[in-house]
Amino acid sequence: MHKIFSIIFAGLLATTTMSAQNVLVPENKQARPMNQVMDEVAQRFGVKFKYNIDTTGVVINYAPSRIRPYSIEETLNNILAPHDFKAWDQGRNIWKIKPYEYHRRYDADGRKMVDYLNSLYSNKEEWTPRRDALRREVRERLGIDSLLVRCVPLKPILGKARKMDGYTVQNIALELLPGYYVCGSVYAPANSVARKQVAQKGKYPVVICPNGHWTNGRYNGDLQKRYATLARMGAICISYDIFGWGESRLQVGKDAHATSIAHVWQALCGVRLLDYALTRKDVDATRVASNGGSGGGTHAALLAAIDDRFTACCPVVSVCSHFDGGCPCESGMPIQYSQGGTCNIEILATFAPKPVMLVGDEGDWTHTYPEIEIPYLKRIYSFYGADDQLQTVWLPKQRHDFNQDKRQAVYDFFASVWNLPKENLDESRVTIEEEAALQSFGSIDKMPAGAQRNIKALIEQNFDKEMRQTYFELRWAAGLEEKARKWSDSLHLDDAAKTERVRKLIETHLKRVTKWHNDHVGECPAGINPRTGERLREVDRQIICDAAQPKSYHTDLMDGLRKELTEEQVITILDQYTIGKVAFTMKGYKEIVPDMTALEDSVCRAYLCEAREMAIDYKSMKEISEIFAIYKDKCEEYFNKHGRNWHDMYKAYYNKRKKKH
Ligand code: ZN
After folding, report:
1. Domains of the chain
2. What is the whole-number distance in angstroms between the Cα of residue 415 and the centre of ligand 1?
3. Ligand 1 centroid from CA 68, angstroms
4. pLDDT digits over 606-647, tens only?
5. What pTM did the predictor assign?
6. Beta 356-361 vs 94-99: how paired, if at all?
7. What is the DSSP secondary-structure string of 1-19?
8. Structure letter (DSSP) for residue 210
9. Ligand 1 centroid to 104 CA: how many Å?
10. What's the gap between Cα 316 and its chain centre?
């Protein structure tokens, strides 16, 4: 036994010695504050930085070794990457420092990606297996199949068709998973020109229109113009709410939108609305398209990639090689990792050789279309000798929108693919309807029996553990939103916009503080309080963790409130955070010190006000009480140092109270 032990011990010793010889341990980490390092970089390269991040307290280890005198890009990457920050060249020697975004890369990365993809295939034979595998894996990674099997049978709830000039609009609500609806509107042709020229045996083409994050969602006037004009030209268009917007918000709340659920849910909406469309007598199953702008464009391409029934696709200002879509509804599920790594333009390419129209502009991430994405797609279409099936419109000097020029590109595309009559292209004949007119229910109470009132059942029954965690986060977010609304309403400002700004300030602050707290629970190690020599209590340790939050959480709120409100109103808000502890404690002091002088009153009040402003940055009432306790000690110390005896005063007060009861 003893021998075996010695051998093991000797072995351990040998390993330790060897590794000690191989590792070079520097005497220090040459650690420097990030602000200082960045100032030096700015000076060295003659540039300015704008920050979207909080650099307070960030330390750069081995700072000098990160500098590359010949390259600002490499220097910034070396400094920022370990902290998940990233630098973006804004031109004119200005760089923006932002948090790392999983969905956004540099233009040059798009170039590299497309070069890499091009190296994988040079003809149809090499491309086809990857294409097929991509379509399969994107669908798998999206997770739509496990939801499709749970969908309830199609029971569309259709509103009354409203007759317009050359088209009709009819609202639709479709239950997808038990108790959860997608709501939208169906725009259908109703004129003789379309009937004669477009309908085949009474059947029209159909366009599924997923939506982006445009103001007012699918109710946006520009979008209504597009749906209705296409309908006047002979194509049935179906618009629908994105997850957590419009009538979906009634069921799942608006925060639900910024989750990965939105990604798969919105694709599910598109697929199921197509299922519904194909049950209609007036829909031609051989002429099916997807069309949308921005996030709607991302989904138009996604639908085309996962569902073989689509025969034409028109994504506007969206799909590209270096941007996956900046919202979890576009990029939340890990579809970009399919086949070892892909990007949206390759996902769209899997639709070739079917007709595609790609619309981009100079003023957003599609500014690389002429150099990167269009040549890439052309190459794929050339594998099929189908160059004429790819149409592109790229608009210089335009920005990210769905303006008339872009809508014109959409009309031209569908006119060319389906022979739609251009004579019916007249947006001035479209009626822009109010949001309420386009809704099936308008409020949760008007939804069918069994309609769910929150996202809980959806997640518990259909999503895995990780998603369930998301739900709990949503629930606390909703709780904080409600709190922020109540507090800002309590000011009774007669300016709705101001109330909203105040609400937003409070909501942001509450969410930041709560998130920081939740992310750092129990991170502070056990230890002793150096003043008392006692072990740190759990609440002390939590306060230490929470106190490390960025200072901007506090200053953003306070500066914002003071800009919007009078000091008295600011205090009202702070009292809400601290449930009126200042007044309550002062009342107690007045009872304990009945002959309190004006000076004593003002000293105590000042201490407690300081406590109040500090306490708002702590999540739990326990922590808030502890912060007040620190300042109460100061008040009591003040009494003691100025001719009073707190202990005696308190004892007298206590005995008096005891007698009373
Ligand atoms: Zn979104």
Report:
1. 138-431 (3.40.50.1820), 498-660 (no CATH)
2. 29
3. 39
4. 999 999 999 999 998 999 999 999 999 999 999 999 999 999
5. 0.73
6. unpaired
7. -HHHHHHHHHHHHHHHHHH
8. -
9. 15
10. 21
